[in-house]
Design a protein that fits this description.
By secondary structure, the chain is an alpha/beta fold. It has eight helices and 28 strands. It has an eight-stranded parallel beta sheet with strand order 17-16-15-14-13-20-19-18, with helices on one face. It has a seven-stranded mixed beta sheet with strand order 1-2-4-5-12-7-10. Helix 3 runs parallel beside helix 4 (about 320-335), helix 6 (about 380-395) runs parallel beside helix 7 and helix 7 (about 415-435) runs parallel beside helix 8. The two termini are about 45 Å apart.
Length: about 550
């Protein structure tokens, strides 16, 4: 959404204040010309030193006297402005663009420093008519860039840019009954025991279902479909049968193109050459979807099109092509079983989600998938900012469909146990409160992650984080959230209606330990913590910290 003060953040947004010569002769001698005041060129860096780009002031403007002309003869151009992003703000940008002839450029809102995260992106097809383009996203607080980038050869023009911010809309709490299927999990290997029943796992997502002994236990497309018309279902059968035996619904991800079927068979992918590319022939995709859906009719109901297509480890094709593959898959899956549900490709980039919807991808899916990885943010960011902003993107494209988090966790070095317990529990609580219908934890047998539920090598015994997961699932399944509030001292309170219609309250403080005075109107008699310990309360005071506790009347 544009704001009334949309022009106030950018300097020289109308390109009328002036231009200055750039000098990059020492490293990039072919980057030359005049760039508008307040704007910068960021095209001279290792890997792009051969860039041949000419910037110029032009009177071929959308309005006023001047505009910025950019001619790309070789390599990639980045031109933009620095923005100091603030917390809790949705940023919206607009700019008028045109080109001498058809070419693509991309609008970006991104982090300034490593890892250069994209907060929003949109690839545009320009023609020779001035056109206004818009982009919105939720940046993390700190220094970032609004940037226009392209590696197409040609000439494009920029004029009348604007950038502003608006507060993230408030989030109404989700008041429906919490189902067992909210608690999802990834289990890589079919050779290890099913997780402890106390975890209440209601659903599994089959991605990275390659086990500890790949490729013998690889249950994804590239390993199953070894040649045209040739399928080895051994591994996937094991995964599917085990999940069904344990009462868990299955989400199957259709991605990872076999090398023989790949449009770019020698292209790098960490899973194997060619696996991030689109199929060389649509028939290969259609045959695969038809074969897997036919074999598991009535066993697998939920079909996710692709994994994290915003990252070139997983997808190097165009967004437009992925939308096309989504439509093809939908037609086949629905023809085989009308009860099949199609889940969108699952990015962790809001810009990519918007671009997928911009190309019409939402028309071909029943469920929207997004990976709400938090990076350095505490879980409260999910409720306050992240989920509401993703939902605002869906609303902008008329997508009133279920939103699932089909992969989330904390990759990297292990967190301290108490912090890990707090993060996991609060993330599950707050995603549900914000309107996310499923949360698939990554992963059961992934010893390298910061938050793990059981210990390597056999994962047979829950650790304290796993015990907390089990306890939380026991608190929530069958309950409803009636209200959520945050106190001035940062204490969070969720009011529950439990399965027996009794009231209970979940309380925590993410920033400090406090002595919390329980309101007498709650009529609390006991407390349960995430270790499973139950304590009778004889006074109105209780210690609250970053790990949620449950206060019950009975």
């Amino acid at each position: 959404p544009e704001t009334a003060d949309l022009n106030t953040i950018l300097g020289n947004a109308d390109f009328e204040t002036g231009f200055e010569l750039i000098d990059k002769a020492s490293e990039c001698p072919k980057i030359r010309g005049e760039v508008a005041f307040e704007w910068f060129d960021n095209s001279c860096w290792e890997g792009n030193y051969e860039a041949d780009i000419e910037f110029a002031k032009t009177t071929d403007a959308h309005s006023g006297e001047f505009a910025q002309r950019v001619e790309i003869k070789n390599k990639l151009v980045n031109i933009g402005q620095t923005v100091n992003f603030k917390s809790g703000q949705i940023y919206s940008v607009s700019i008028w663009l045109k080109a001498d002839s058809a070419m693509n450029v991309t609008l970006l809102l991104r982090k300034a420093g490593y890892p250069y995260s994209y907060y929003a992106q949109k690839t545009l097809s320009l023609n020779n008519t001035w056109t206004k383009y818009n982009l919105s996203g939720l940046p993390l607080p700190g220094e970032g860039f609004f940037m226009i980038t392209s590696e197409d050869k040609g000439v494009f023009y920029m004029d009348d840019a604007a950038l502003g911010s608006s507060l993230i809309p408030s989030t109404p709490i989700t008041s429906s009954t919490i189902p067992k299927s909210y608690f999802g999990l990834h289990i890589h290997s079919s050779d290890i025991s099913w997780p402890d029943k106390s975890l209440n796992i209601g659903t599994v997502r089959l991605w990275d279902a390659s086990g500890n002994k790949p490729p013998s236990d690889d249950a994804q497309w590239a390993a199953i479909n070894t040649a045209e018309g040739v399928y080895d279902w051994t591994s996937l059968d094991k995964h599917v049968n085990r999940a069904i035996a344990n009462g868990a619904e299955i989400v199957f991800n259709l991605a990872r193109t076999p090398q023989w079927a790949s449009a770019r068979p020698d292209e790098y992918s960490p899973y194997g050459s060619g696996q991030a590319a689109e199929p060389a022939n649509d028939k290969y995709w259609q045959d695969w979807v038809r074969a897997v859906a036919s074999r598991y009719k009535g066993k697998i109901k939920y079909w996710e099109i692709w994994n994290e297509p915003n990252y070139d480890w997983f997808w190097t094709g165009s967004t437009e092509k992925l939308v096309d593959l989504t439509k093809q898959a939908r037609d086949i899956l629905k023809s085989i079983d009308a009860d099949n549900k199609i889940i969108s490709p699952s990015p962790y980039d809001m810009g990519y989600l918007a671009e997928f919807l911009e190309y019409g991808g939402g028309d071909y899916v029943d469920i929207i998938s997004y990976h709400f990885y938090l990076d350095d943010q505490a879980p409260e960011f999910l409720y306050n900012s992240y989920v509401p902003t993703v939902k605002s993107i869906l609303a902008n494209y008329g997508q009133n469909k279920p939103l699932w988090d089909t992969e989330n966790g904390w990759p990297g070095q292990q967190l301290a146990t108490n912090k890990a317990i707090g993060y996991l529990a609060r993330a599950y609580l707050l995603e549900w409160a914000a309107g996310v219908g499923r949360f698939y934890f990554y992963a059961w047998d992934e010893n390298n992650d910061s938050v793990i539920l059981a210990d390597y090598p056999d994962y047979s015994e829950l650790n304290p984080v796993g015990i907390a997961y089990a306890e939380l699932s026991d608190w929530l399944i069958g309950s409803k959230m009636l209200n959520i509030e945050t106190k001035a001292d940062d204490t969070w309170i969720i009011e529950l209606q439990q399965a027996d219609n009794s009231k209970a309250y979940i309380v925590w403080n993410p920033k400090k330990q406090i002595n919390y005075d329980i309101p007498s109107s709650w009529q609390i008699a006991k407390m349960r913590d995430l270790s499973g310990q139950e304590t009778s309360l004889t006074s109105s005071g209780v210690v609250v910290d970053n790990k949620p506790i449950l206060l019950e009347a009975r």
